[in-house]
Amino acid sequence: MKEIYLDNNATTKVDERVFEEMRPYFCELYGNPSSMHFFGGQVQKKVDEARSRVASLLGALPDEIVFTACGTESDNAAIRSALEVFPEKRHIITSRVEHPAVLTQCRNLSKRGYRVTELNVDGNGQLDLAELERLVDEDTAIVSLMYANNETGVIFPIEEAAKIVKKKGALFHTDAVQAVGKIPLNMAESAIDMLSLSGHKLHAPKGVGVLYVRRGTPFRPMLVGGHQERGRRAGTENTASIIAMGKACELAEQYMADEAGRVREMRDRLERELTALIPNTRINGGGTDRLPNTVSIAMEFVEGEGILLLLSEKGICASSGSACTSGSLEPSHVLRAMGVPFTCAHGSIRFSLSRFTTDDDIDAVITELPPIISRLRSMSPFGREFLNK
Amino acid sequence: MWDYTDKVKEHFLNPRNVGEITDADAVGEVGSLACGDALKLFIKLDENKERIVDAKFQTFGCGSAIASSSALTEMVKGKTLDEALEITNQQIADFLGGLPEEKMHCSVMGQEALEVAIAKYRGVDAPAHDHGHDHVETEGELVCKCFGLTDVFLKKVIASNKLTTAEQVTHFTKAGGACGGCIPKIKELIAEVMGEEKKTAAERPAKLTNLRKMQLIQETLENEVRPQLWADGGDLELIDIDGSNVQVAFRKACAGCASSGYTAKFVEQKLRELVSPDITVQEVQG
């Protein structure tokens, strides 16, 4: 069965051009970039080129780019660094809708004597900057807020937030794993101190990430050992994946217009047609700024896992905010923080598009999803009560 | 992705007996929208009101909830009510070739709906697992507030499925799976059930060995005491343990603090509460 892949916020296909770029660095050009000989030196040049390519996408300087193993490592390293830089500060601010890479770490720190504030979001999943301004104080070591939400695509006003935080002398970190490559970022005109990104969300392979650290921002490494990454992340470089990451960022820059144009149009059409064809639906975060590639659609009286399994029978790959698919028993913490009622939080499905998505893929969902929902609603005791009304 | 058996997938994709029976003899309803799954079971008896001739269901829930409901309706047909009551949640899971442990609560839901339906038909109080929106009296003390589960129900599931950890209880019943506030209580219930089963077996000595006591003192200081001191910029160091006498030295803001006497009392109180009531705490220089 040919897959119709609409789960690009979970992970993406490695672009063939990215794969070609990294391929020689396994069996042929396998040298260690730190070596003194020509064989390592030529790899060092490619790693430097990758660093410049990542920097270019972010509007950053090459020496502000630290390669890591994943987005989670970047998030962990940023927060831990800030706490070491300010040993006397014991307050951390984040939001209730962060990715577990940030939220779990903050909650663990709260058990170790840190004061952790989780900012609320409104019904659209949007932040209240006045609340942030009120809560950030001289004791705050770091504020970590995501650029765009992985489940709903909601974009936070990160630049405004960063400015508020900088006035109080705290460091500002953003998990931009979902935003990079989908919307333009420019660190040259930004107040952000640290920013995380992940390779496999933008058509590079799994196992490589980046932490952007602004020049002059104090930093303490999480991994210590060798001098790699200017002492900010020890461990021999994952050369092939770093080179892939560079290529992926170069391509992302070229495709930025495609994201804002073609991808957004396909997403908008999907949203429009599904809400017209399926009664009792709503778009989570529909009233605010969102990524061009993401739609989270809540459908009442059905449960997400059943929808995903039936979509999967048709080759369609999507994701859900339902409890049953995640191993936990509560629906997504993001949807609950937004106050999405239980009746539709369990039935929320996320479709996330990419540069490889086609109009045929969108047509397939528009054809297949409505009958799946009517079928599950007709089986549900609540769906029937509602349909009989 | 869940590792469902082919039989689970088949029953999910082609569920048997979906729908309602308008002149049903018995109806059992468990679960709710908030819980994330719910099942309404309809049963029709023969003319002599002895055997089940038809069963239908409506289910809101995940793939395994729908498959479990489908399996249940197939299993009860042709059985007397007493025979149907013998069906356990494990048998429902076995009928489907097994369920992932995290999904065992789906089979429990099927068995509950059946018990509720039969109890209502017979006009007796249903057993104490009628959480959700069914209107039968609940028995026992409410343990899991998120999913509305009582101690009587949980103990029954723990005993019949020989569960030994709180995590397993969550997989089977959902209890403790949302806010997690009742997990300590669930652990107590497990201990209680296991204790009841062990009564005939040899009693184990309940005495705290010196080794265990020292470990507990260290764990309590690390997990319960020091984080609180850190929050105020202080700290302490464990110097020695001599029987029940615990010697500590205060560090950072606590060192030389005028109220370190109170802090020592706080440490003592914590250790008495969590380790042993005979503990004394002594502040030493070190």
TrEMBL record, chain A:
Q: Does the keyword Transcription apply?
A: no
Q: EC number(s) in its UniProt entry?
A: 2.8.1.7
According to UniProt, the reaction catalysed is: (sulfur carrier)-H + L-cysteine = (sulfur carrier)-SH + L-alanine
Aminotransferase class V domain residues are 4-365
Q: Which cofactor does it need?
A: pyridoxal 5'-phosphate
Q: Which Pfam families match?
A: Aminotran_5 (PF00266)
Q: Which domain of life is it from?
A: Bacteria
Q: Gene3D superfamilies from the entry? A: 1.10.260.50, Aspartate Aminotransferase, domain 1 (3.90.1150.10), Type I PLP-dependent aspartate aminotransferase-like (Major domain) (3.40.640.10)
Query: From the UniProt record, which GO molecular function terms apply?
Result: cysteine desulfurase activity
Alphabetical keyword list: Iron, Iron-sulfur, Metal-binding, Pyridoxal phosphate, Transferase
Tell me the protein family, please: Belongs to the class-V pyridoxal-phosphate-dependent aminotransferase family. NifS/IscS subfamily.
Q: What does this protein do?
A: Catalyzes the removal of elemental sulfur atoms from cysteine to produce alanine. Seems to participate in the biosynthesis of the nitrogenase metalloclusters by providing the inorganic sulfur required for the Fe-S core formation.
Record's PANTHER family? CYSTEINE DESULFURASE, CYSTEINE DESULFURYLASE FAMILY MEMBER
How would you summarize the oligomeric state and partners of this protein? Homodimer.
Q: What is this protein called?
A: Cysteine desulfurase
Q: Which organism is it from?
A: Geomonas propionica
State the organism's lineage. Answer: Bacteria, Pseudomonadati, Thermodesulfobacteriota, Desulfuromonadia, Geobacterales
From TrEMBL, chain B:
Q: Where is the BFD-like [2Fe-2S]-binding domain?
A: 142-192
Q: Which NCBIfam families match?
A: NifU_proper
- What is the official name of this protein in its record? Nitrogen fixation protein NifU
Organism for this UniProt entry = Geomonas propionica
Where on the tree of life does the source sit, at the highest rank? Answer: Bacteria
Q: Where is the NIF system FeS cluster assembly NifU C-terminal domain?
A: 217-281
Domain named NIF system FeS cluster assembly NifU N-terminal: which ranges? 4-123
This molecule's function is given as: May be involved in the formation or repair of [Fe-S] clusters present in iron-sulfur proteins.
Q: Which Pfam families match?
A: Fer2_BFD, NifU, NifU_N
Question: What cofactor does this one take?
Answer: [2Fe-2S] cluster
- Assigned protein family: Belongs to the NifU family.
Keywords of this entry = 2Fe-2S, Iron, Iron-sulfur, Metal-binding, Nitrogen fixation
